[in-house]
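Run log, item B.
One chain of 827 residues. Sequence copied directly from the ordering sheet:
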Amino acid sequence: MVVAKFFSSSVVVNHGHRQLCFCFIDDCAALDTISANQAIKDGETIVSDGETYELGFFSPGKSKNRYLGVWYKKISPRAVVWVANRETPINDTSGIFKVSRGGNLQIFSGSNKVIWSSNSTVLGKSINQEVVVQLLDTGNLVVLDHNSTNKNLIWQSFDYPCDTLLPGMRFGKNLVTGLQIFLKSWKSPDDPSIGMYTHRMFTDGYPQHFTYQGQTIISRMGPWNGLGFSGHPTDIPNSIYSVEFVHNRKEIYNKYELKSSVLMRMVMTWDGKALFLVWIERTQEWLEYADVSVDSCGQFALCGPYGSCSINKRPPCSCMEGFEPQNPKEWGVQDWSSGCKPQKPLNCGNGFRKFTGVKVPDTRRSWYNYSMTLGECEMACKRNCSCTAYASLDVRNGGNGCLLWFHELIDIREYDTNQSLYIRTDAANLEGRVIIEPVSKERKRIIIIILSISSVVFFLSAVAYACKKKKKWPHMRGRDKWKHDFHIRDKSMRKEQYDSLQHFSLRKVANATDNFSNSLKIGEGGFGPVYKGVLEDGQEVAVKCLSETSRQGLEEFKNEVVCIAKLQHRNLVKLLGYCIHKSELILIYEYLANKSLDYFLFDETRCFMLDWPKRFQIIQGIARGILYLHQDSRLQIVHRDLKAGNILLDSDMNPKISDFGLARTFIGCDATAKTKKVVGTYGYIPPEYAVHGHFSVKSDVFSFGVLVLEIISGRKNRGFSHEDHSDNLLGHAWRLQKENKSIEVMSASLRATCSVPEVVRSIHVALLCVQNNVEDRPTMLSVVLMLASESVLPQPKEPAFYTGEICKEIQPPLLSKQYMITNVYAR
């Protein structure tokens, strides 16, 4: 770090092999000339202590204009994080950067004209005052009063950001001075002057973040809920960064601090995106970690008042329960801006309906109290007839604090979150409430007629069914001894669990699959047969039916529906709907043309269709999908059956994790469980699960490690053999790793296309994942970062089942009678 100290006469400061001379602007007039060695001139730079950042003059992109700025020193192309004279560029290389006795930073052009000033001075100081200018390794350019005991801060660039928010930078408002800290985009990649977009915290009502285009709001990041910002799931505690939110009488701000050595920044891009970016050393590029406006539902108020947006619906907008379109004609042409209105007028006697998994509405005209309980919050809203909704401020520990709305609710969307919203609605629409109205004599007569006709129709239907009873679909034959209605059998199955999915009638499913024709059967697994189908609108689907011989059943079906229906990720298979009819349980998925990973991986011919770039893309995609399950979804989900057969491939060979029948969900930090019924597939099950029944997110990490080794080698872990030893694939890879020959694990089909460093690194990461001790295995977030970077990796310890005698290892009494092996093939 270069420290420039300014006294009443010039002082020389060493900078590398050069000497830079600074002088007070007031005293420079006494000098004969202002030469290159008397101030920071264009071409000279100041470097931070850790050499992370650099300050100097630069020209952005194709522009020839010169600006003073701060950028990452060792990253190319240059990533500028702060610009001083963004509105007043210099058109040549004559710029000089100086500081006054009082601590005022200034930039001069060649004509000795001040083109930029920090307007920061400390008055009443003596002529021997000492001012210190430092470029900190946080990227913050600071001016300090070095004479004061605490080195009082005179000015800092963190108070005046441009388009970039760095770790440690406060983002919000100082309520004492009125200083507002927000991001302003560049006008273009070649022009750092103020552009059309800003990202700021709005502090009227309960604080929240907005992105503006001019004066128009284009997106909103909801308020702080104790864990993160509503509608922004990446803030949930992770190993990359932590978020702090401060709200007191003096200031309101949030900031994030890095937990690891990665470089991370938030940028308001010139074209209006608010992105979190992480630098990946291996690829020498910035990886998009998160986007504040993630998808089409990120558009502010897309569905209008009381409208809710869901990316899983077509169209995405619908009215909240108890509400209807304000203007049906406009909604008919997909203009939802008018929003929705209550189906019946609201009044003080109305109750509140609970909506879960939502991004809370715009809070600009809300009221809040940190000390109230949720019960007190409900009473406060009930007493005020103009209160339209209430929610907890902090979702932790069951909910604390109170947030009230007194206006139409705008910008609601479905989101995977613990946040609940209680909306005032007509009593007839309340969950669990039944309104009984008096029945007139005329209505009774009509009801009797309807019931009589229904009885006749039912009788005729029963006769028709009896006549056709022997005509069964292939997967239903032999079920006469297995008659039961799952709706009756499982009283815990509630309709609202399926509300987000489309229900298909058995007739539609049968038509789509040509009566479950064997010619359309594309696979069969632990749940049952899978058929390719075509719906009436031409959409291709995969239809998975519960087989009578399956060890799976209602619980696995519910797991699929409850888990996967609410998951939204590009590397997870999409569940389109379901069918329940008597003993028939059917799931309808998106159809993926390239079947499953094992269809290619373990075939001597088809394996050549997967070159190394595709396999590495598949590895990274699977890792991101598992990371979403473990961390970014509302509930932590342990898949418990990750294997090549459960990785489906779309037309571009992008991987999608499927088959959530055996998955388990966790709430909060409790992510470990024990079971007496061990399920999964031998070869992918970790030892603590196979022997003791303990499973956690680290169980999936183990399975992922096995899967990576199979993808690289093209060989199955279970059944692997080698002429020199009896180890399984894990043990074989471990032996080669110790001998620095890990590349020999790679399949011969990859020799022409492989990147040796990527292959070796992938094997190393896989061995870290399959370590015998649970605590030694990394999290999936660490795995994703290790695969994408070139950071130094820890040495792996001995893998599980190293002796190779895997069958002896996993056959204790626990597994002797209670186990399940799934063997799912292509969809």
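Observations after the first pass:
- The two ends are 59 Å apart (CA to CA).
- The first helix runs from residue 25 to 28.
Flagged for discussion on Thursday.
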